[in-house]
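Hi all, long-time lurker, first post. I run a small reading group and we've been trying to get comfortable going from sequence to structure in the token notation. Rather than ask abstract questions, I figured I'd post a concrete chain and ask someone more experienced to write out its structure so we can walk through it together at our next meeting. Sequence below, copied exactly:
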Amino acid sequence: MNPVPPSDSARPYHHGDLRRAILGAALDVIAAEGPAALSLRDLARRAGVSHAAPAHHFKDRTGLLTAIAAEGYALLAAALDAADDLRDAGVRYVRFAREHPAHFQVMFSPQLLRGNDLELTAARALAGERLRAAVSSVPAEGRGDDARLAGVAAWSLAHGFATLLLSHNLDGPVGDQDPDEVFHALTGILFRPGRP
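-- Answer (accepted) --
Happy to help. Here is the structure in token form:
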């Protein structure tokens, strides 16, 4: 007599890297439908695990979104760390947003995040430090007396361009051009050496 094979629910739990699988599935959902569509139960179904399994890694939806934001800031810091100068940092910021749109969307939605999370605050601080380093590489005559304000201006330009690009508001003006090249040219127009 052959034994009856176990049902899916009776099979022992096994998953190579559940945390990464849940993060990957969450990023897919966010990229396609936005953070509001995110559900731990749906992500568990997509990963083929029990509905309670994601809570072991993220506790709740806010924990998952916070982990995504922390990962995004770490990726952004790494991208900015390789920048040659402020213009290159801006190009790398825009490229990061294009290559990681779900991270980008969550990172700048503080209402979705656990703001006091240590991993998030450390990654955010590192990304901020990389941006400040790029700004400080510009001679004082090129950035003015207030380095902090210059940092806000640089961040605003890169973030605004990336946001407009991702929301398809620049489809007409940018067209088929490489967004990296367009942003680089834009910074050249606005920040010419010796401009008052």
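A couple of things your group might point at:
The mean pLDDT is 85.
The chain has two domains: 16-58, 70-190.
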